[in-house]
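Reopening this ticket.

The earlier resolution said the output was attached, but the attachment link was broken on my side. Pasting everything inline this time so it's all in one place.
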Amino acid sequence: MFQWAKSCSYDDEQKCRFHSTTRSRLKKLAAEHLAAGSYEIRSNKAGIAASGEITLHHEQFYLQVGQFDLSPGHGILIRTCKGRKDFTGGPNHFVGLQLLDDIPALAASVRIITGVG
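Inline output:
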């Protein structure tokens, strides 16, 4: 299992693993629950003191993963949107990074929050 709570700040090796593992999990989520061509996955590594973020941007929602707050229940932002050019979207909803280890549970959270999937 990946150590989601291990900070990426000032640790380039951990940041690379964080981005690689997250992208892999988001690709799995998308492949299993979203129509091909209805989403894109982006990664922004940001500066040395931050984790950056990995985004799955669908036509009706986006999911952004980062070490925003390492307390339980945070790390994955889920927000509705109106197309892939909408970067502000609806209200913020957060779930814990550990859901990246349970793709069906993450998909269920996305479905509950957005109605998609």
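Reporter confirms the inline version is readable. The chain has a mean pLDDT of 93. Strands lie at 39-44, 53-58, 61-65, 75-80, 93-96.
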